[in-house]
Amino acid sequence: MDEFAFIDAIKQHTYKQPSLIKGVGDDAAVFRQPTHDIVTAVDTFVEDVHFSRSTMNPFHIGYRTLAANISDLSAMGAVPAFYLVSIVIPASWNGEELNGIYQGMAELSSIYKMDLIGGDTVSGKELALTITVFGYVGRSKARYRSVAKPDDVVFATGTLGDSAAGFFMLNNPGEYIDKAFYYHRHWMPSIKAEFASELEFLPRLALNDISDGIANEAIEIAEASQVHLTIYEERLPVSAHFDQFNEDRQLKWKLFGGEDFELIGTVPASSWEDVKRAAELTQTRVTEIGYVESVERSSPEVYLIDRGRTKKRLEKKGYTHLKQVKK
């Protein structure tokens, strides 16, 4: 398959977003949005660095790499709209496999009515994907990590550590409970775009997506906002049968296991009931996991109160977007 045949095979022939003026077919795409702010994010994924064919098929590679970018938009409170894909193609990948990657992206993008509006294709020694996404948010309604304040509630969506558990199962075959569930959470994570968008009316809200483990994301909020965050270990939400793993793995995966693509946030205590109502409307699990306190003479930190009621400082030691193929 030559470049032009490949582009024709993967391009959209109809579009969903009314703001799109010109999609694939020219030197650049054109879209117009006069009433909202535009949010954009980009990530690059390299075979055997960020993903491996030993643990997922091409469809799941496409699905999850796009999911990582949509999750970034969700953390900003933005509604996904468009994406661009640039791909470096090695000789070891055939046309059917490459189409599988784009089918995975198309599956996820259809959920959010996103349009593929362009990209680039080149040959190279190893497969690499660079995905750029665009989303819309109400004017001056984008969410930032820097707005957490003392006495805010700290919350998390969904459950934590599922992707890391699924990855472990894939690399360590054996008898496990809910194996299919954990595989699915690793291959096809759920994104909290609807929930984040439902919170647009709140006057103040800090959000961060949990791509590198909740400890890292909490530290990013603490540093950006110049506050301390305190999290209770016993409140960290987990899925059924997560306790089939030993305690060390459970704690490591909850705190530092990446790619759950859930959200951590902080909100004034007076707005916590509004967050719970938004969660109910969007069928999102949301859990209060801690609180924010002021920084006086020390630098911003995140603390964990463990099950023995001991307060410990958390360090940044998660990992970034599939960056380790072994744990």
How would you describe what is shown here?
The protein is an alpha+beta fold. It folds into 2 domains: 136 residues, PurM-like, N-terminal domain (60s Ribosomal Protein L30, Chain: A), CATH 3.30.1330; 169 residues, Phosphoribosyl-aminoimidazole Synthetase, Chain A, domain 2 (Alpha-Beta Complex), CATH 3.90.650. The protein has a 7-stranded mixed beta sheet with strand order 8-10-7-11-9-12-13. Strands 3-6-4-5 form a 4-stranded mixed beta sheet. Strands 1-2 form a two-stranded antiparallel ribbon.
Provide a short characterization of the protein structure:
It contains 9 helices and 13 strands. It has 327 residues and is α+β, with helices and mostly antiparallel strands. It is globular, with a radius of gyration of 20 Å.
Chain-wise SSE layout:
Layout: H1 3-10, E1 20-22, E2 30-31, E3 36-46, H2 58-75, E4 79-89, H3 95-111, E5 115-123, E6 128-138, E7 153-157, H4 162-171, H5 179-187, H6 193-198, E8 206-210, H7 214-225, E9 227-232, H8 247-256, E10 262-267, H9 272-281, E11 286-294, E12 302-305, E13 311-313
Parallel strand pairs: 4-5, 9-12
Antiparallel strand pairs: 1-2, 3-6, 4-6, 7-10, 7-11, 8-10, 9-11, 12-13
Helix pairs in contact: 2-3, 4-5
